[in-house]
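Fold sample X.
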Amino acid sequence: MEVPNPIDNSYLIHRKWMTVAIEIAQKAGEAGEVPVGAVIVDSEGKLIATGENRR
């Protein structure tokens, strides 16, 4: 049985949330805003909040 590499697992988790932030930024850009998106995630990987640039 292969033990998961914690570094690889951490990378995949970060990549998942960065993808969400990028999608939020794209939507802000499509709405005429500066394309900035953000996510806040707790230490257990639970989504706390999202946000985007607003004038």
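Fold sample Y, listed below.
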Amino acid sequence: MDVAHQTVSLDEANARLPLLRPLVASAMKIHAQLRPLVARLEQLDIDVDRRLLNGKMPDDADRSARFAIGRVQGLYAALRDLLAEIEDLGAELKDLETGLVDFRSYLDGREEVYLCWRMGEPTIGHYHGLAAGYAGRRPVTGLEFSAEPSSAGRRHA
């Protein structure tokens, strides 16, 4: 199954939060460590592009720059691994600074939506349309979220 399009029920998504929390926390920490290192390299006129992140060392980099580049490359590899683990849980990390995560689900068995969770929230309490984004969050209370579409959606009382 294509992980980017894996869909889950609200119960399944909430059950994955204990596994997700430490992964998101680690990804946020690595992101915070990367930011000043990338800024330092940019001050040295070193382009931090995909080639550099994937292991290419600029020929003209001095010893100090090479050390910073090596650190950036190692942190980026660790971040990439964490993102893969997060995706394996059916989650999409949307914002590394706030720990915003979405899970795809079906609202009332008909409309594909994102169940929206942010680091620090005890459970998933909101959802939004695929194009709506965080600003379009609405409460999940009283609604049915399923992993599969159905021909007849239903509401909980």
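Sample Y note: The mean pLDDT is 92.
Also: Residues 10-43 form the longest helix (34 residues).
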